[in-house]
Design brief:
By secondary structure, the protein is of the alpha+beta class. The protein is built from 5 helices and 10 strands. The strands form 3 sheets. A 5-stranded antiparallel β-sheet has the order 3-4-5-8-9, with helices on both faces. Strands 6-7-10 form a 3-stranded antiparallel β-sheet. It starts with a helix and ends in a 5-residue tail after the last helix.
Length: 213
């Protein structure tokens, strides 16, 4: 893990998933530019950690330190999910902030080590996404409405399974893509839009679903 983490200092920074509702774009971007690896659309690097298949957690990895860094980055960026490659570490680990949709639920951040999809629904759901690793834009894309993940818990012990639906399932798929070197822009249907317009359209749809007031 120390070797993997050492690449962080060599990378250009900025971040993922979806910025929280109501945060100022300019201030949020200035924070994430210092924290999370950015995919540069103007000069994409095929060797970027964002485009590589992440490695499983290795014996001897300091998982606690990695999860600590991920939690700090998640708080500082205001995201709802973050994957290890976004902080320059090629490991199959991500966090999800559960409970952000529908609004009003208890919010819990959970770690997933070496996650894999063991089942998914046939039904797809369209929604808008953005990623702070692809700054300033967002777009609409389909994801499975439900899925079941098998993963290793951070506390150790045998693998566990969890079934996720709707927004949490979308976040999981977004983060799983990061572990496989895929960005959400690879899956967008139609044109990318500004981050402000993406948020407007996303929140409009979430209100229609009863996820927001």
């Amino acid at each position: 893990m120390r070797q993997a983490m050492s690449v962080v200092a060599l990378l250009t920074w900025v971040g993922c998933a979806h910025v929280g509702q109501g945060q100022a774009v300019s201030s949020q971007e200035s924070v994430t530019e210092k924290i999370i690896v950015q995919w540069r659309r103007q000069s994409p690097d095929p060797q970027s950690v964002l485009r590589q298949q992440a490695l499983p957690v290795q014996p001897g990895d300091d998982v606690g330190a990695l999860l600590g860094r991920l939690r700090t980055a998640l708080v500082q960026t205001g995201g709802v999910g973050i994957a290890a490659p976004q902080i320059g570490v090629s490991r199959r680990v991500f966090l999800i902030k559960h409970g952000t949709r529908p609004a009003g639920q208890p919010v819990v951040v959970k770690a997933y080590l070496d996650p894999e999809v063991v089942w998914h629904s046939d039904e797809l759901q369209d929604d808008y996404e953005a990623c702070l690793s692809v700054a300033g834009v967002g777009g609409k894309l389909p994801r499975w409405q439900k899925l079941r993940l098998r993963y290793r818990p951070e506390s150790g012990g045998p693998p566990e399974e969890v079934e996720l639906a709707d927004w949490d399932a979308r976040i999981a798929q977004h983060e799983l893509d990061h572990l496989d070197g895929t960005l959400y822009i690879d899956r967008v249907v139609g044109e990318l839009t500004s981050i402000a317009e993406m948020r407007r359209l996303r929140d409009e749809g979430h209100k229609a679903r009863g996820w927001l007031k």
